[in-house]
Amino acid sequence: MWLSRRTRPVPDGPGLPGVAKSVLDERDRDEYLNVAAGLAVLSGIAASDAICCIRLGCRHRGDDHRSAAELLRTATPDGAELAKALLRLLDLKDAAHYGVMVVASRKARDALRWSTRLVDRAQQESER
Fold it and tell me: Going from the N-terminus, what domains does the chain have, and what CATH number goes with each?
């Protein structure tokens, strides 16, 4: 394993989708819905980057995450479906991270589903 001061081994554990699900299952506080949706968005973005790195040897870098969806679309045969999941997550990004309103429970659960789709696909790519 190649390690330096700027790299670390990947830890075993539930990852962001698992943490998002745990937070989403916490019913005591409504703001946890935003936390769960925000974690789902972040894990979807990271999974998209992983898929692109594995398949294309590059990832999108910049403030416009929607451009990352266009790159993802070209990365795999099912890239259009993956890009659609990423775009749905990005539609929730501002509300989940910066919103003053609570993300609806249904939207938070949808975000977790879309994120899990991307993370599972990234896992498949890493095992090819």
Answer: 16-126 (1.20.120)
